[in-house]
Amino acid sequence: MMLPQFEESPFNIQLSFHKIIEGLEKIAASETSPRAEEARSLLAQVAAHPEVRNGIKDVSTLKENETLISLLVSDLFPPALTLNEIKAVSIPFLSLIFNYTQRFQNILNAAGPGFEINIRDLDHHQFYVMTCCIILNVHYNTSLNFSKPLFYDIPTADGITKHYRILYNVDFMEITPTEKAVKLSQEEVQQLIDNYDNLDLWKEKFPPGSWDLRGFALMSLYDATTENALSILKGTLLGFQTEPDLHQTLESIFQSIFNIPDIHVGFTAFEPEEGKFTTTGFIKKFKSHMLPEQFEDYCTNVLRSDSYQLLIKDNSYFAISDVSEMVKNNPDSKLLSYFKVQKIESFVLAPVVKNGNLLGILELVSCRANDFNSVNAKKLDIIMPFIIDTIDRKVGELQNQIQAIIQNYYTTLHPSVHWKFKREAQNFIIHHNSGFDYELKEIRFKEVYPLYGQIDIKDSSITRNSSVKADLINQLKELVNILEKMCQREFIDDAEEQLNDLKAFLEDLSIDIKADTEQHILGYINNYIYPIFNQLDSFSYDIREMLTKYFDDTDQQTGGFYSNRRDYEKTLSVINEKLASILDKRQAEIQQYFPHYYERFKTDGVEHNLYIGNSITPNKGFNYNHLQHLRLWQLQVLSEMTVEEHFLKADLPYHLNVTGLLLVFSAPLAIRFRMDEKHFDVDGAYNIRYEVIKKRIDKAFIKGTTVRITQPGKIVIVYSKYEEEEEYRKYIELLQAKHVLAAEIEQFEIEDLQAVSGLKALRVKVLNNLPTAGHYAYSYNDLYHQLNAINS
User: Fold this and answer.
1) How far is CA 497 from CA 483, 500, 529, in A?
2) What is the pLDDT of residues 658-680, one digit of tens each?
3) What pTM was estimated for this model as a whole?
4) Cα–Cα distance between 561 and 555 in angstroms, integer?
5) Coiled-coil segments, which residues (predicted)?
6) Cα–Cα distances in angstroms (integers) from residue 202 to residues 182, 189, 190, 198, in the given order
7) Are 453 and 596 a contacting pair, CB within 8 Å?
8) Residue 338 domain-assigned?
């Protein structure tokens, strides 16, 4: 038996050297040279072993003829190339291989006595269809490109897997049909071509043993380890292997590419917001060799200045060929000491960078010196694109998990504080994936400076009540008119009481409107007036027309009885949207100067909270100048919002006014994210005073008067310390010089509020003398430079 790799085949296989023998017969008959003598000698040996010509069908027969076969194929196996070529005699796709070159034999010897050579990933279905396609191409003139790259995976003595591409030369083979062969029509051939997956159909058209395969093939291998490892790497990274399998596969691939046994692969994540390395949980089985015993550390602590520049700034490879020697010269290097403790003697660190963002560091380490160096590190150039895409995908998956946790437990967050919530969510994921319970911690930021401001729409409640009142009067007048006409036409009886009630409502509305007036009147109309209109079909045409128009006017979206309320809501909405858009746009700009926390609320106007401090941006080097810049920005933006509202009035149904307010609070405080309310609030009893002032200040009076501290077209700055007053006078002077604020500055004390006393205020008018809103002849950068000049 010929030892096929699979039990069934459309071929009867006969290992034959008839084509070589026929060539020898021609040489022996036509020449008298030494070559002819050699041919005749070989033919004499063949005559004693006719199976070599007629076909060997059994392995035992093959072994008996090994020496003769070697002589027959000797011209195809030049001795000078035996240590260079990886070649042997074979039958395609079978495990039958013999007459190896010396290099091929050396490779198999290194693999060990227990190694069995088999083609990788070739199953019975593929084998059967491929052999059938050979027959179709030879005998039915098809041109099916059925071949796929075939490989042998053969280990070295060091245990490194090498990958060899298989090539077959079939010039010495013949394919002929037997009596079992099925003659195929063109339609049947096309049916096969369209049904690769139907193995039963292929076996029906090409029954097992229905064709003879006679001859032999020359099989050549070439070392395609790097190219194939890359292909496997790509498939592995794009696939869905479990992480332990992924880690093991990657280490095996890197061993093949670098030809180094016992390579270990690690990964350390990079957190740009904090400038830290972390042993992140998104690739759990990949150990961090840079952080062997800790969860995180600042990059500047782990790396020296030269390696920091290379890895973090330049995103270049960092390779050390002899750790022990480097430790002698750099005993203070924390990174080298970490590696030395782990018995790492050479390594390559490769930054993983996607779209300019450093995601982390890929680590290749070895326990032997000189396994890695700056030269072979360049092999990573062909690997890193696949690694980068995979890690980027893993980072994306982790970010999705983190975002889901944040949205579930915290809600949507401002980017300036997102990093801390991300870190807590990441801790949650890592502990959860490791099988430990973990309770999310409260998020707190200490020593932050608060800024509060608002632009409030003046008398918005009064205006709303006026709009409601006007609409109700119109509706009541129309109802009175309809009922009077119904009474005149005698369509209804005894409606005198309802008419009097409606007229009484009109008299009440001419005086005032209360909080429940609208609800009370509409309830009365539903309960006592509309039942009268139920007999619509019994009324005359003109009454029906009046009722139809009346009910059309009760539509809240289009009806006339809601026109004033709609105009008011439109006015309020347009003002709020415009003011909020200005604040959001300017916030996006100011965040570039120095990141800080920002939140805003739309009510009857727009409020905002800002918090700035080192605990929010620990890597930015916060100082008091950053707070001053933000305070100046806040005053400027409130001025801009006030001007914008002034120019909006001409296009709005209601001409409303706005007031501006800033609260100055110089003492740093702590804020805490309240899980139940899903927002930040001040933390600690002392800091509660700040929240109390915020809630009560906008309705406060000037001390000793009944005049509100907020006035239309003006910004009031509430403070408690002399130093705060002096600071804000500088900001006011800068904006006065730019013709944004008026020259006059009012100063006064504020009435004592509940639990709050001693507050003072500056108030200044915002100038509206610009030709159009938003056109300032300066930038915030101009103001900052001037402020810096004053401070210096």
Assistant:
1) 11, 5, 11
2) 999 999 998 888 887 666 555 56
3) 0.51
4) 8
5) 469-512
6) 11, 10, 12, 7
7) no
8) yes
